[in-house]
Amino acid sequence: MTRRVAIFLSGGGSNMRALVASMTGDHPARPALVFSNEPAAGGIAWARAQGLATEVVDHRPYRGDRAAFEAEIAARLAPHMIDLICLAGFMRVLTPWFVGLWAGRMINIHPSLLPKYRGLDTHARAIAAGETEAGCTVHEVTPALDDGPILGQARVPVLPGDTPGTLAARVLEQEHILYPMVLRRFAAGDRRPVFLP
Measured between alpha carbons, how far is 197 from 193 in angstroms, rounded to an integer? Predict the structure, then answer.
């Protein structure tokens, strides 16, 4: 059975594009929806240009009422018969209620070697701490922030003179390799972690 995937984003959607590009041929999943909380997100414009289904729920009118915001997201997802959600640069923290709806069916990519550096500013924090390597992690989403079983990791060296921007660019290259690889395995029911050198 082909799995129907919703990809959540808030920005340009480079990881979304990598995921969409990978879901062809014998891949066990297909992109069924691209969703954003940002009406002007570049990723939404790109998805529409490709003929992909899109939905947008601007979080701003719901400020202070995350439950109503997420109820609207759930309502928008329902007609698309989604099987799996991939968070790909979605910059909103989801409540335990929403995470519970998708338990075991929602994955995220995070730009650090979890469990190190949960949250924001991961590259600056890694450099400040004197780390010699950084990377990215794909994990199942659980109610705790950037937690949940690790499904894959890719590592990159932290080079002398690195800035958060230069490190982020190298990590992003690995994200575009790792996330599609993990999604293919996850959609096929394989939850064993994969570690790229």
Answer: 13
Contact of 117 with 137, CB cutoff 8 Å: no
Distance CA(158)–CA(148), nearest Å, equals 25
pTM here is: 0.97
Active-site position among 27, 59, 110, 123: 110
> What distance in Å separates the CA atoms of residue 23 and residue 74, rounded to the nearest whole number?
24
Residue 149 preceded by cis peptide, ω within 30: no
Question: For this structure, is 123 an active site residue?
Answer: no
CATH fold for the domain made of 3-188: Rossmann fold (3.40.50)
pLDDT tens-digit series, residues 10-50: 999 999 999 999 999 999 999 999 999 999 999 999 999 99
3-state secondary structure of 69: helix
pLDDT tens digits, residue range 162-189?
A: 999 999 999 999 999 999 999 999 999 9
